[in-house]
Amino acid sequence: MRIRNLGILAHVDAGKTTVTERFLYLTGATHKRGEVHDGTTVTDFDPQERDRGITIFAAAVSCDWADHRINLIDTPGHVDFSDEVERSLRVLDGAVAVFDAVAGVEPQSESVWRQADRHGVPRLAFVNKLDRAGAELDGAVESIRTRLGTVPLPVQLPIGREDGFTGVVDLVRMRAYVWADGADAFADLPVPDELGAEARRRRRVLEETVAELHPGALEEFCAEGALSAGTLTGALRDLTLSGEAVVVLCGSAYRNRGIEPLLDAVVAYLPAPSDMPPVRGEVPADPEAPFTALAFKVNASATGRMTYLRVCAR
């Protein structure tokens, strides 16, 4: 229950590798932020990847957050390397789909979303690059609704626009998270007065949408006229696991804003191995069962071959 096996999926240049690097840094797995443009990232290890500034090979890394082990695969975003994504999806329990806040759903992000649909992989959505000119959360959310045919559930409200983007309002807890320039930690604050009415309106819309989709939430909503944070969190997790809806978060990975709440959402909403159905061949995720694994990647080098396995039982 304390393991999360997930992948990062997106169109090229949406910020997958930067999100991965921030995960590693904030969890203490690395002690320096890697940057794609500097060629210093952990997961873009091949010389071609560092020269071109794109991900070519799926790379697996691990880190720890909130007493959970997170096993993460950073996948390519370029259409030429879709097979790497396909192989990775076969061993993932969940995924974070990253979208550009200016472009919204792009062609390859739509393609990898359909691949994840075929493999039944539950997803979160992260709208990245909110600090860019022309960035708009609502526009990106609408493109998720119309182009991907799912129900997006935004659980955050941005604080500031474009270059003035400084943080987010958490609509579940009704708290504001603000990141100062250059700071490694965020400030947990009350919702700003100027955003109070909008935050309450969006929270109400979120509650109504969740109640329409989740019977347990509907029962509480009808009885109390609102949803508690605990009920809302549980319903969001159920809807994520069933694929009926997708939780949407936002931020700017490059400027280190919005990553901690995304890590919390990974733990709260994405499935553990025990939440998933048996893999093909009816092999349950049981440590006491006979050893079973799926090889999903082979790297050849001058010293030999390394095979990556997803262990299902041992």
Biggest sheet, spatial arrangement of strands: 2-3-1-4-5-11-6
Order of helices and strands: EHHEEHEHEHEEEEEHHHEHEE
CATH hierarchy, class of the largest domain: Alpha Beta
Structural class: alpha/beta
The figure for the number of domains is 2
Spatial shape: globular
Low-confidence stretches: none
CATH architect. name of the largest domain: 3-Layer(aba) Sandwich
The main pleated sheet reads as: 7 strands, mixed
Number of helices: 9
CATH topology-level name of the largest domain: Rossmann fold
Q: Total number of β-strand segments?
A: 13
Assign the CATH superfamily of the largest domain.
P-loop containing nucleotide triphosphate hydrolases
> How confident is the prediction overall: mean pLDDT?
89
What is the first-to-last residue Cα distance? 16 Å
Please state the CA-atom Rg, rounded to the nearest Å: 19 Å
Beta-strand content estimate: 25-35%
Fraction in helix: 25-40%
GO molecular function: GTP binding; GTPase activity; translation elongation factor activity
Pfam families: GTP_EFTU (PF00009)
Protein name: Translation elongation factor EF-G
Keywords: Elongation factor, GTP-binding, Nucleotide-binding, Protein biosynthesis
